[in-house]
Design a protein that fits this description.
ion transport; ATP_synth_F1_dsu/esu_N; 5-stranded mixed sheet; 2 helices; alpha+beta; 5-stranded antiparallel sheet; coiled coil; ATPsynth_dsu/esu_N; 27% helix; ATP Synthase, domain 1; ATP synthase epsilon chain; 2 domains
Length: 137
């Protein structure tokens, strides 16, 4: 399968995705990057965002990840995600409540640690809502 790359998405709970695909676009902390067959080896951290799985030029899956790590090697691409869910399974009302709650937590934070944790929750909630907008990349 020289024209495909093996992709696995793993969360602490289970293996979420495993298939040979044409391309994967991953939201790296230094910017989005595409993994194609024959990609150079790399390890990258992942920011909250959407992984796009492609067959040919068509996006076949969109999976929201809260963060994690991606490893690309000669066997394929593995993403270890803190949490992940298909974009189609995101509940907008729940995501909006999470964002509102996180913003309140930032305002109520009594110390830097609590403020940083709340700001991280805001970033994740904003990214989750952005995923619902349906942009391809």
């Amino acid at each position: 399968m020289a024209d495909q790359v093996h992709f696995e998405l793993v969360s602490p709970e289970r293996l979420l995705f495993s298939a040979n695909v044409s391309e994967i676009v991953i939201p790296g902390t230094e910017g989005d990057f595409a993994v194609l067959p024959g990609h150079s080896n790399l390890i990258s951290t992942i920011r909250p965002g959407v992984i796009h799985v492609l067959e040919g030029s068509q996006v076949t899956d969109r999976i929201f990840v809260e963060g994690g790590f991606a490893e690309v090697n000669d066997k394929g691409c593995t993403v270890l995600a803190e949490r992940a869910q298909k974009v189609g399974e995101i509940d907008r009302a729940h995501a909006e409540r999470a964002l509102s709650d996180a913003r309140e937590d930032v305002a109520d934070a009594k110390n830097d640690l609590d403020r940083n944790l709340a700001q991280n929750a805001v970033a994740i909630a904003e990214a989750r809502l952005h995923a619902l907008e349906g942009s391809v990349y």
